[in-house]
Amino acid sequence: MNRPFSIYLDAVRFIAAFLVYVYHSNQRDIVADVLPASNFGHSSVIVFFVLSGFVIAYITDTKERSWETYTASRISRVYSVAVPALVLTILLDSIGRQLYPALYGYPFDQFVVRLASSLFMLNEVWFVSITTFSNVPYWSICYELWYYVVFGLLTFLPRKVAWWTAGGLLLLMGPKLAILAPIWGAGVLLYRWRALQALPMIWAVVLLLLSVLGFLVFFVAAIETITTTWLKSLIGANWHTQLTFSKFFLSDYLLATLVFAHFVAMRRVAVLISPLLMVIERPVRFLAAYTFTLYLLHQPLFLFWAAVIRGDPKGYAYWLSTTVLVMLSVVAVGHFTEDKRHQLRKWLEVNLAGLPSFLQRAA
Length: 363
Hints:
Blueprint lengths: L2 H23 L15 H22 L4 H33 L11 H9 L19 H18 L2 H15 L1 H18 L8 H20 L2 H13 L1 H6 L6 H21 L4 H6 L1 H8 L2 H19 L7 H20 L4 H13 L1 H8 L1
Helix pairs in contact: 1-2, 1-13, 1-14, 2-5, 2-7, 2-11, 3-5, 3-14, 3-16, 5-6, 5-7, 7-11, 8-11, 9-11, 14-15
């Protein structure tokens, strides 16, 4: 991966996470006016899925070439943030509900079920949908973790059993995860389709312009709403509701195609704007380092700080002050989550490397 494109992807990652934050914080108790760019929450998650597939394909090709390293990296990456996020969600919700109950229209019961399903990433299997208290965005990591597992099976198991095992796992997880799996897989295809890396620059520029035009048409024409309404009429309101976060899959496929094309183009075009990208590299890398913590903690954090401040939703002062406190909190928490995950990864690598010998002795 060339350096300018890497910087660009990090910028996209942070922007997508921030747009998800704007989407969720667009609540009338916090800001009376509808926030600008507040309709891109779900779309940003689709960008994350494509980007995640690309990055995972890249690191398994260049760095994580053994199942032990891959497993240790994925577990440490997810759980170094997910576990603190779960603990903090309960703590922040407990306090915030006392300070400003009207903000919290989210479940706060069935603690054992919600915690267990969240820890094992089973919130969205089949037609189950378990909300992690106020932490609604947690759903997507319950998809991604299983995509990591499926990809790991396909990468490290012998070919004779890999596809059967991976397919069986997706079947076990249910249709919601299976429906969006091709979107994550598009990121893998983006990395592995070598011919695309040699795309002539003129065609890359044309493709970039077409992808941007496609994004404009997608959002201006409200493609997500149109396709979702049609699907609902086709399968019925009940089944449509049961699909929860996968019910937008028709427009998600189209959006993922546009994202795929955009990344194909930017991988080449980024070289042309490398001086600009190099200038912003340090702040972009800094912000990107806390993207996962921002994503997994922003909703309980902004609800908590909004409950503490309890300001006037007229104007933007209340929302802005809440947002500043959220960002400061993310950096503080990120120091003990994302910054420390490497220690957990090393510990896991050592123990996973010794697992075959342990199992042999136990047998």
